[in-house]
Specification:
It catalyses: sucrose(out) + H(+)(in) = sucrose(in) + H(+)(out); D-glucose(out) + H(+)(in) = D-glucose(in) + H(+)(out). The protein is α+β, with helices and mostly antiparallel strands and 706 residues long. 57% of the residues lie in helices and 7% in strands. Strands 1, 2, 3, 4, 5, 6, 7 and 8 form an eight-stranded antiparallel beta sheet that branches. Strand 7 and strand 8 (434-441) form a beta hairpin. Helix 18 crosses helix 25 and helix 19 runs antiparallel to helix 23 (586-606).
Length: 706
């Protein structure tokens, strides 16, 4: 997984630049005011700081559709260029208006980076470490703030600190970021698949996973092209074929799905479990519809899966020790790499199912529906236009591993009797017998309208035909996508109103009132230098906390971290409220206030800081992911602007204690929202997460209607 890790580290430099810029402008604004005589013009002063927020908000409105059209990598390259150009203009800035323009360019770069880096990392990372890698932007952003505060603090000790140099230094790391995005970062394999560029996607996956056999994950990416669909949850008991053959009557065999092991002559049977609802089977701890009617059924659905999910996950199935060609009947199959839309040679060896030649009506096909030669081939009619072409993506190799991460397997079944072709996501459960839960739905490439043209096997369309559909605004109203948008937008709003900006912007004032600034002034530091030193130490303390969160993100999970850290935020804010209202001994007040601020920051960066962006990058289907994550990011920036500009008004009306009290109330609401609405997504492939949202949303509708 080293390839995916290095790519994530390189992409996260975009957030390093954001953190660097935020800290630099906070430290340099004091010197900018003096040079341009802005003490009597607070509006201009506020615009210099806020122009980057305005730029980020504006560019976010189009970043999603543009990233879906141009790709993730080109947008990251544009972000690095904007960072570099803005730093050069800020270094030059002969007047305040040029500085405002430079800050606007800088905001464009920030907006693209903050929106697309989590999206890019989610689409390239393996499920087992996706949470860890997607916490990197939080770590690099805090590291950028710390290094920038150190730089500004050092410059503040000189005789004539230059704010232009402070802001212009950003050009050095932005050049490095530009080189990495241009020469090192690959395009997102999911975006390439969404455009029908299969060969490129396969090569990127092989680089990211450091292995040649990526057929299973390629098939998963193709299946991720669909939005919505009629997904059902089923459950199977899996065992050797002879065990079922002895016990079952011929009519029962019609309901069996045959699985093939890699060893010659070894076959397995998946027998559907009957007699209970599939929902209650998957949700072991009770009815999916919570009796109180408050908890989202989706939360219970995800939770029931994680009860069986291994903590560390697995890129291979635990069902079968050797899974190289589990779903392949013919062993080593000849393959043609003709899935790519750019391939010119489209020879007439279209895919034909061999389901009719098998002794079972239901048969799992190999990854990407690799051709399996049968005695019917010579009798087959000419292939119909638009049917799936032969081959998966690994020429000359045996059928690929169907493991798709987190203990999940991807398979298909074709029922000739019913004329139905279904995709199956299998996940093993614990128990004395081999039992698996399955998400069953229509494949992204299956075209029922072509069935009358294809007498044997499922009628399939080419991936490029599915990819050509592109995102649509109507997709946002599909129940699963709409449900995911409620979760994503809701958690972004609550994060912004949880108090991070208020605590961040007023930390120097809080500590100054507590007497910390006075203590530092005794060391010979001026008020500006003391403020910068406090901020740098605070950001330094964040780094080990983020490192702990990176480790726990894929073990404890996103939901658990939120439910654990938000109560600590509430307690910290309440202590700050008490400290601002009650007169305590100066030393005691300084200690308690400082400790509360540090604890608040450290817990925020472990949970509420990175997790909203991580969740928003995980819960949307590939086709509309860019559009949906841009919607969530737009909510983030609008909330940031509202909180920033209402803070002075709120301080004048209710005071510092009242403001922090209101933030504590928001944190209480946020904890309730997470508990009732936010599911656990650790270790699950992105496509499986979106399937669960589709199932959960429809189950919630049924529950509400009843």
């Amino acid at each position: 997984m080293s390839g995916a890790v290095l790519v994530a580290v390189a992409a996260a430099i975009g957030n390093f630049l954001q953190g660097w810029d935020n800290a630099t402008i906070a430290g340099s604004i004091l010197y900018i005011k003096r040079e341009f005589n802005l003490e009597s013009e607070p509006t201009i002063e506020g615009l210099i700081v806020a122009m980057s927020l305005i730029g980020a908000t504006v560019v976010t409105t189009c970043s999603g559709p543009l990233s879906d059209f141009l790709g993730r990598r080109p947008m990251l390259i544009i972000s690095s260029v904007l960072y570099f150009l803005s730093s050069l203009v800020m270094l030059w800035s002969p007047n305040v208006y040029i500085l405002l323009f430079a800050r606007l360019l800088d905001g464009f770069g920030i907006g693209l980076a903050v929106t697309l880096v989590p999206l890019y990392i989610s689409e390239t990372a393996p499920p087992e470490i996706r949470g860890l890698l997607n916490t990197l932007p939080q770590f690099t952003g805090s590291a950028g703030m710390f290094l920038s505060y150190c730089m500004v603090f050092g410059m503040s000790l000189t005789k004539a600190p230059s704010w232009r140099l402070m802001l212009g230094v950003l050009s050095i790391p932005s050049i490095i970021y530009f080189a990495l995005t241009l020469f090192f970062l690959p395009e997102s394999p999911r975006w390439l698949v969404s455009k029908g560029r299969m060969l490129e996607a396969k090569k990127v996956l092989q680089r990211l996973r450091a292995k040649q056999d990526v057929a299973g994950e390629m098939a998963l990416l193709v299946e991720g092209l669909g939005v919505g669909g009629d997904t059902a949850i089923e459950e199977y008991i899996i065992g050797p074929a002879d065990e079922f053959d002895d016990a079952e009557d011929p009519s029962a065999r019609k309901e069996q799905i045959k699985l093939y092991g890699s060893s010659q002559g070894l076959s397995w049977i998946a027998k559907p479990v009957t007699g209970q609802s599939s929902i209650s089977l998957v949700s072991r701890k009770g009815s999916l519809a919570n009796q109180s009617g408050l908890m989202d059924p989706l939360v219970k659905l995800f939770g029931s899966v994680h009860e069986k999910l291994p903590e560390t996950g697995s890129m291979r199935s635990t069902l079968f020790p050797h899974f190289g060609s589990m779903f392949s009947v013919g062993g080593n199959q000849p393959r043609n790499e003709d899935w790519d839309e750019e391939s010119i040679a489209r020879e007439g060896d279209d895919y034909v199912s061999d389901a009719a030649a098998d002794d079972s009506d239901d048969n799992l096909q190999s990854p990407l529906i690799s051709r399996q030669t049968t005695s019917l081939d010579k009798d087959m009619p000419a292939p119909t236009q638009g049917s799936m072409r032969q081959g998966s993506l690994l020429e000359g190799e045996p059928s690929g591993n169907t493991g798709i991460g987190g203990g999940w397997q991807l398979a298909w079944k074709w029922s000739e009797r019913e004329g139905i072709f279904k995709r199956i996501y299998l996940h093993q459960e614990d128990g004395e017998i081999v039992q698996a839960a399955a998400l069953v739905s229509q494949p992204a490439l299956y075209n029922k309208e072509l069935m009358h043209q294809q007498p044997v096997g499922p009628a399939m369309i080419h991936p490029s035909a599915t990819a050509a559909k592109g995102p649509s605004w109507s997709d946002l109203f599909e129940p699963g996508v709409k449900h995911a948008l409620i979760v994503g937008v809701g958690i972004q709003i609550l994060q912004q109103f949880s108090g991070i900006n208020g605590v961040l912007y007023y930390t120097p004032q809080i500590l100054e009132q507590a007497g910390v600034g006075y203590l530092l002034s005794n060391l010979g530091l001026g008020s500006t230098s003391a403020s910068l030193l406090i901020s740098s130490v605070t950001t330094l303390l964040m780094l080990p906390c983020i490192a702990v969160a990176m480790r726990l993100m894929d073990i404890s999970g996103r939901r658990t971290l939120l439910l654990t850290t938000i109560p600590i935020l509430i307690v910290s804010l309440l202590i700050l409220v008490v400290g601002s209202l009650v007169n305590l001994d100066s030393t005691v007040n300084a200690f308690i206030s400082t400790l509360s601020v540090v604890v608040y920051f450290c817990c925020f960066v472990m949970g509420f800081g990175p997790i909203p962006n991580i969740l928003c990058a995980e819960i949307f289907p590939t086709r509309v992911r860019g559009l949906c994550i841009a919607t969530c990011a737009l909510t983030f920036w609008i909330g940031d602007i509202i909180v920033t500009y209402t803070l002075p008004v709120m301080l004048n009306s209710v005071g510092l204690g009242g403001v922090f009290g209101m933030y504590a109330v928001v944190c209480i609401l946020a904890w309730m929202f997470v508990f009732l609405k936010v599911p656990e997504t650790k270790g699950m492939p992105l496509e499986v997460i979106t399937e669960f949202f589709s199932v959960g949303a429809k189950q919630a509708e049924v529950t509400n209607n009843s």
